[in-house]
Fold these 2 entries.
Entry 1:
Amino acid sequence: MLNIHRDICGYCGACVSVCPEGALELIDAYLTVSSLCMNCGLCAQVCPLGALEVTDEE
Amino acid sequence: MKSEYDLLVIGGGPGGAIAARTAAEAGLSVCLVEKRPAIGAPVRCAEGIGKKLLHEFIEPDERWIASDIRRARIIAPDGTAVSLEESMAGSEVGYVIERKIFDRELVWNAAEAGSDVFVKTRASAPIMEGGTITGAIIESCGETRRVHADVTIAADGVESKFARWCGINTTVPLREMMTCAQYLLTNIDIDQTCTDFYLGNYVAPEGYLWIFPKGRRSANVGIGISGRKSTEGNRAKDRLDRFVKERFPEGKIIEYIIGGDPVCEPLDCTVADGLMIIGDAARVVDPLTGGGIYNSMFTGRLAAGVAAKCISGGLCSRERLMEYDETWRRSEMGRVLERNYRIKEFFITLSDHHMNTLAKSLASITLSDFSVKTLVKELTKRNPALLMKLNELKTTLN
Ligand SMILES: Cc1cc2nc3c(=O)[nH]c(=O)nc-3n(C[C@H](O)[C@H](O)[C@H](O)COP(=O)(O)OP(=O)(O)OC[C@H]3O[C@@H](n4cnc5c(N)ncnc54)[C@H](O)[C@@H]3O)c2cc1C
């Protein structure tokens, strides 16, 4: 699953636009992940800060 | 907030603000919604804009001009600097502005022209009737409303969710998303009339690092790299930290800015029935520089003009709104986008060695006419070894 480290996230939205599923949304200063997420990790790679992480947990 | 407007604008960046102002001035009833609680903040920008381009929309005002730039320097991986004076570099040199104040000014202008404005108010879904977009579901401070409009303009920036909800694919390929980090640094020694661009696969792979002065002893120091070059320990912020530590050890960070800048090709089509897409949401950022302030204002004004015409004609189908799409593609902006996309695709294939060689020969030429064409011609003459690579570029420019 996709983990968001909220203390690192700068809510810039770079991840939102690379998500092929449209699973991410930025609600002001709050990043949300929907069930559409496929754990592809593109968002985690593009993040300028390293705030996103795909983990093995379900 | 009324439940019906002629035009609904989603997003209060420069694109949305100019669209709302233009439409209100044309006599339309307009509603602009911005999801953030404050217009212009947090900043996601290096704040550079060409002088002539800015003048097309607003007179420069000392309240939001931070620096007046006279020249730009491009610094190759080995340190060779190519200086471009204002007289040659034209629209690439300009002002560094204060987006927080600038963006507010634009929204204020829209409000003054008669547009309604709502902050901390976001569009959460389109309203669709038989395939036509007839407005949006609006969430405002805990309340949900349905707002109908003849035309909805998606000016929601890099995230570009609204068009996506309408069924348009706005995904940016990873390699074409510039992942960026920037500090507003103070207490540093800089030339406050000069912008610096550092190139190279070590400093900023497939992107660049910039120093944009903001007055005396302060500057936006930032970096953008391709998403595919962003790896653990070598993300935009890691790279910026290393540069700042070495170059400005005495600097103090007073603002921390991050963001994504899409440098892909524009959307295949920027209209649908009842919908127009402008600015970053339409992916009309200059792929070479990453600049999008002007392009968002340009597309915003054009879209509002076409919307006003279609609304008074009583028909806002995709076919009618197409005039907007066709006009911007044919415009100078559209042509520059196309050309610069090809130049960008060429540049990212250059090795550091190539860049050094090019910079060295450039540094030794004085060009009176600094057009891309003469530049390529001069470079080919001086660099037979690079001929093959430069020919690739020349053919793409023909
Ligand atoms: C690090 C960085 C440096 C840059 N440097 C420069 C530069 O030096 N010069 C330059 O010209 N350009 C630069 N750019 C690009 C420039 O910032 C953008 O092109 C410009 O802001 C685009 O304007 P816009 O109006 O299209 O979108 P934005 O300015 O992004 O505005 C979109 C607005 O829509 C709002 N929004 C989003 N979704 C919703 C919703 N559902 N409901 C309501 N509101 C919503 C957002 O909160 C935002 O305020 C840079 C970008 C980055 C990331």
Entry 2:
Amino acid sequence: MDAIPLTRNFLVNNQLRWHGMTTGIIERPRFLCALGGALSTLNALPGAVPIIHASSGCGGNIYQAYNGGAGYLGSGYCGGLALPSSNVYEEEIVFGGENRLAEQIANTLKVVDGELYFVVTGCMTEMIGDDARAVASRFRDQGLPVLVADTGGFRGNSYQGYDIILQTLFRDFVARTSCQENKTLNLWGIVPGQDVFWKGNLQSLKTLLGNLGYQVNTFFGEGETLANLQNAARATLNIVVSDTYGIGAAKVFAEVHGVPYISVPLPIGPTATGQFLRTVGATLEIASKFVERLIRIEEDRYYSYYERLADIYNDIDLQRYAIVLGDANYAPALARFLADDLGWLPELAVVTDILDEHDRELVRQRFQDFQSGIQPRVVFDSNASRVAGYLNEYWLRNRGQRYYDALSPAFVLGSIYDRDLAETLGAAHLSVTFPVTNRIVLDRSYAGYSGGLRLTEDILSVLVAGR
Amino acid sequence: MDYIKQKTPPVREDRLRACNAFGGTCCDLVGASRSGCLYGLKRAFAQTYTCQLGLSLAILNTLRDAVIIIHGPIGCGGSNIANAGLAKNLQRLRDPRARGLIWLSTNLTEIDAIRGGEDKLKEAIWYAEREFRPRAIIIVNSCVPALIGDDIDGLVEGLQKEVSATIVPVHCPGFKAKIMASAYDAVYHGALRNLVKAPAYYDRVLPDDLEELKEKYSRSRTVNLLNVSSMSRQDELELTRLLQALDLKVNLLPCYAHPDSFEDATEAALSVSICPTHDDYFIGHLQAKYGIPFILRTIPLGIKHTSAWLLDIARFFGLEKEAQQLIAEETRQLQEALAPYRQVLQGKRAFIGGGEIRVGATAALLQELGMEVLGLRIYHYDHFADEIYDELNGKETMVVNVATSQPFEQANLLAKLKPDIYLGHVGLNGWAAKQGIPVCPVYGVNNLYMGYAGMFEIARRLVRILKNPSFNRNLAAHTRLPYFAKWYQENPFAYIDNNVLTGNK
Ligand code: SF4
């Protein structure tokens, strides 16, 4: 087939470009396209029914990726192979797919029971210049709950897809209001699916802030409803648990609804969670005595369990060198937990996202202030097999010396891809960052205090598994 | 058959007039197929499925000592993520040193869509060559490069001289094929153009007539056994066992094969398919180009089809009598072993979903076990299945729904038919489960299904699953499917666009 010239529409609409980001080839990527992130996000939104405007394979492909990669996330209410999709083929690619989309939306409204229908596009329909917005707005104008976002693969990866969906919800779904509820917060920045433990993590943080006396909307967590989301503009503060994910959406929220945001790192374990509470407390101007009391209670509880480890940790020497691999949220969070709470030596941290220099700098700083004084070496690389190369550069190889300071005993904390690395290093391994195909994940959380306990259990269990 | 000179193979809806939108009885289906008026491909409401790229990967990912390059935007081929861990273990069942699944994405962006993606593809090929030194580099071509017109074959031709791995382009852009099974042809097309060739022989330094005779004899007794990616290692071993009992040798391909096995394929005495709709393209070309005859009829599932499959092969080698003996003995032992299971399964009502050949033969197998088959759902239909479906008992009332996935049609059918057990395919099992029906998957990469041993395992599995259906029953009590109640009152095929003449071509 001859090349079809790209339409102007496609070029003009495309605002979110991969500016300054690495756009090279990637070996075994740890994320999908914007459509992927959009679908995993919508799948987590209660009552939402996505309608894909793309070729037949995009939806099924994305489902398989997240089902397997996110600890067997499953199809959920209307995900997986049940995802309504226009399934455009060559005819539509040549003649345009808008009629097919209109037909698909109309019939989805007849067959599928949802509270909110959300049209998301793939790269092909955008390239040929289909105006999904115009088609969807015909339904919206009739008062039907149909939203739309351009999420074609070119608009970035899963993380951008998450941001695009949130932006659209904040702009077109969250009701404008003048009434503020002092004790209500919104919290996001944890990407469903890409964060394999998203639901548990959201729940932990919600409970934690609840202890400070706040009602928290997480949109995707337990017990959330679309009504909560619709009323989200009543909150006094938006907390983005990320330096990079959902920041665009936070800006839109501030612009449209006037609610400010703070961006905080994902807290895992007592050291980071203490900081998290202090930052949030200070922003909300909560009396520090109150915050410190909460921290003390939580730490007491935490150490009542850690006390048990005094024996085994020291009897068999459970300290390890560690290599940490994960996205911009997880890599610093895990490294900090290992260094500051578990007393380990995270030597190398690999941030596996595609980030621009500005975001890289933000992430780099998160590795600077570990309480333990440990400073892992930080690299940014999305290629799965490259890590061994970095290690060689930095940890001297044994050149046949009799006395050699080996990177051992070691532990690889990363994704399933990194099991190979662990195998080569003779290190232990646990998958916690996407993709995680060798574990089933339900409500497990690694965030907060109890999350730190869970992660400790999981990591140390690997080390005693042979006993 | 000769499509090999073309860069890309034709899609199934054109080559075979395959259909993926139909609802009716089994009898109607076969009738329509035989009279050439079965070509529904459209729905006015549709759900996602997998594209031919996804299905191509299912096969290509299994190849040992190969690196896959997915030429497209970052999301295409993301399904590989789910197989990243498993693929290595499965490859290692065949070769303990296998490296596992390695793939690259060319990560096409909008700028590449404007300028063309060829430079990045070149970069990816070099990366694969440098980092992994594989025997083969497989380029899987997705929608975007097909749309912008990247000249992949031209690029490969230029680069092949400099790269030691054999580069294999596979053209499988999703939007080109409605029939997902076009993937089989796309994969075989790539293999036929680049991996299949007569191996080079060197003269012996010291001639050895006896050795040469032995080799010749061995080749005359070797069959290419064409496996499918939905088969387990246990299945392969069971079929190999049966062929070895006839003193035949087996060259297994394409799945989990080393790229070199494709060279060996040109020397076998016979090619044997276990799924006609999977292999006709490959087997037809092997015959046309290398004169290798083939058997392409059925899948060795259940007594009837396993025996027919075995007899076809034996007949070719003049071993019919020996095969009859083998079949009689195998069947006797199996029937004896099945007796207690039959008692439980007798009269149980089943519904089956999956690929046309596997589903048809599974239906026959369940009938052999004394079960009743209420209905079938199949991804696509083409003439290869006519014989199998025509021979099913009760075909006059048995419901058939041809649909690539489309779980909304399944939900409607299951609600009406209320089977005692559902046998289905990955991605669709969960939906049946939420309706409270016990589910037995129709395949599994770690389960035995084929041959005589497979039938015993299926019976055993069915009885076990039926013993405690609590999990799915509880699910049904606490979850719901996403369709309006009124959908279940409608005709399950209401959204199939029957107006094919105006709708399609
Ligand atoms: S863009 Fe095309 S090739 Fe890629 S997943 Fe979608 S349908 Fe398949």
